[in-house]
Amino acid sequence: MEKTALILFAHGARDPEWANPMRRVRAAVMQQAPALRVELAFLEFMSPNLGDCARTLVQEGYSAISIVPMFIAQGGHLKHDVPVLMEELRNAHPEVRFVLSPPVGEAEPIVQAMAAYALGLAGSF
User: Quick one: which of 11, 72, 76 has its CA closest to 45?
Assistant: First the structure.
């Protein structure tokens, strides 16, 4: 049986408070799936980065790691930087199965939730 972990992969920012929504998402996932190992990793400005986060999980024996980009859409980072990072991970840890999902903002339930939120605000003025 594979030991599986989930990495919520966000952009990062210089302001440490920027990550608070990501921490809330992580906490919600952990509450809904207490047996699942869930970590946050960042592309830039914040720690840990994706490579360090994955390395820690691999050292702890995780053999399947799902990476969910916490981005609204496919932009330059996801089109250019992330494929390089994924190749580096796979080369460094060929025994581990890394699965990269599409960005969270492109998932239909998220699109619908953003639409509902915007409509709720539009009706409040």
Answer: 11
pLDDT (tens digit per residue) in 64-115? 999 999 999 887 878 889 999 999 999 999 999 999 999 999 999 999 999 9
pLDDT of residue 79: 86
Q: Say what the pTM is.
A: 0.93
> Percentages helix, strand, coil for the chain, rounded to the nearest 5?
50, 20, 30
Alpha carbon distance 65, 54 (integer Å): 8
User: Residue 110's domain spans which residues?
Assistant: 4-122
Q: What is the pLDDT of residue 89?
A: 97
Q: What is the CATH number of the domain that holds 16?
A: 3.40.50.1400
Q: What's CA 85's distance to the chain center, in Å?
A: 13
Sign of CA dihedral 83, 112, 34, 13: positive
The number of distinct structural domains making up the chain is: 1
Q: Which phi and psi angles does 58 have, rounded to 5°?
A: -65, -45
